[in-house]
Amino acid sequence: MRINHAIRIAAGVAALALTVTACGGSSNKTASQHAADGKLTIGIKYDQPGLGLLNKDGSHSGFDVDVATYVADKMGVKPENITFKESPSAQRETLIQNGQVDFIVATYSITDARKQKVDFAGPYFITGQSLLVRSDNTDITGPESLNGNKKLCSVKGSTPAQNIKEKYVSAKEVQLQEYDTYSLCVEALKSGAVDAVSTDDIILRGYAAQSPGALKVVGNTFTTEKYGIGVKKGDTESRGKINDAIDAMITSGAWKAALEKNFGSTGFQIPEPPKVDRY
């Protein structure tokens, strides 16, 4: 009996080890080393129209995907050798630190707190936080119209959620609902479970364009968000190469073309490109 029990335990441990190895996919190599091998694993969002979206046919599309693909190409990796991995907001630092991705291009705002855990190349885009409401809503016209009766949705681990907590929840001006993804927030908005969704303007415009006539973006932006490409802390070689690629994308015109392709039909005004910060 004891022998059989020990065998079962050993088998369970072995199976668990295999599962962790298969699911984790972690590596100690840097992004540059993986690129030299001809392959990259890049973190993106799967549920953000116009930015990072997993399509029904299994393909990926959006501005972030185009940026990631351009950067990979400049590092010597062709599109067919890129593995895209879903990177929810709350998991981004962990995915980088554990070596499960080489870098992340997923509407990833550069903040001082995040720079304690990962390094950033970029920024490759600058936006600001805004509000998304149902098209028939006339009460909410911007953050100044929020009050204690309003339910506002944002995503766990995101910069917008933290901004809302610091500026509005603390003043009891809004009830914050934190979901795992923005797509869940948008569904809650459509169903009437929340009154508004708050995140970066460009993300909200993608959702509004996906549901024409049902949703609208209101008010002016009320924060500044600089999107960076997250890499492992201390990986200065890879960060430098990614910065070079971002610069090349901007100067070649590919950056503007990618924005026009993904947002040209939404009425979105393409801004001036950012200046890469090589701090």
UniProtKB/TrEMBL annotation:
Name a GO CC annotation attached to this entry.
extracellular region
Identify the residues that the record assigns to the Solute-binding protein family 3/N-terminal domain, covering every copy.
39-266
Q: Does the keyword Signal apply?
A: yes
CDD domains assigned to the protein according to its UniProt record, in alphabetical order = PBP2_GluB
- A Pfam family that this protein carries is SBP_bac_3
Please indicate if the UniProt record lists Transport as a keyword: yes
PROSITE patterns, per database record: PROKAR_LIPOPROTEIN (PS51257), SBP_BACTERIAL_3 (PS01039)
- Provide the protein name: Transporter substrate-binding domain-containing protein
- Which lineage? Bacteria, Bacillati, Actinomycetota, Actinomycetes, Mycobacteriales
